[in-house]
Write a structure and sequence with these properties.
With 162 residues, this protein is of the alpha+beta class. It has six helices and four strands; from the N terminus they run H-H-E-H-H-E-H-E-H-E. The chain binds flavin mononucleotide (FMN).
């Protein structure tokens, strides 16, 4: 079971130290995001890395004032890019959203393995986030990330029923 500890130990972290996260660490985390499966390997997802304080504050406002976003030194915005999905209409959107979501999970797990804290923030105004970043793709997850300033306890899950 030790091999699976990286899954069971991951928790959402929402408080961060002001210490920066270096580019090579972020690059590795993005590589992990990029290693996730995708429909027909079309990788219909994009990542935007945000470090600037003003942009982080604007994203925090777009997310109803969630402090984790303004406080984290880095935010990875995981986006769905349906135009790259190879399918049109609802199906294309669906594939792109899933491609983005599975990447986001790889990003969260990798951050945790590397000793960083992160949280998936999905409560935001999509149009506002896209406008702040000037992107033509659909933001799916804002992932504020940094060295943890809290140690949250793992939350209970529903019991398995077999
Ligand atoms: C789709 C999605 C949206 C979420 N949105 C938010 C959010 O807006 N703000 C937040 O603080 N956490 C958010 N979370 C994190 C969840 O609250 C968290 O994963 C859940 O409580 C389980 O806790 P854990 O991640 O520590 O296991 C979101 C998670 C997912 C998957």
């Amino acid at each position: 079971m030790k091999k699976l500890d990286f899954i069971f130990r991951r928790v959402s972290v929402r408080r961060f130290q002001p210490k920066d996260v270096d580019d090579s660490t972020i690059s590795l985390i993005l590589e992990a995001g990029n290693s996730a499966p995708s429909a027909r390997n079309l990788q219909a997802r994009d990542f935007v890395v945000v470090r600037g304080k003003e942009t982080r504050e604007a994203l925090a406002r777009a997310a109803g004032g969630q402090k984790s976003i303004a406080e984290a030194p880095v935010i990875i915005v995981v986006c769905a890019n349906p135009q790259r999905s190879g399918s049109s209409g609802e199906r294309g959107k669906f594939y792109a959203e899933i491609d983005a979501a599975v990447s986001a999970e790889n990003i969260l797990l990798t951050a945790s393995v590397l000793g960083l804290g992160a949280v998936w923030v999905g409560g935001f105004d999509e149009g506002e986030v896209a406008s702040v970043l000037g992107i033509p793709v659909r933001p799916v997850a804002l992932i504020p990330m940094g060295y943890p300033a809290e140690e949250p306890v793992r939350k209970e899950r529903f019991p398995q029923r077999c």
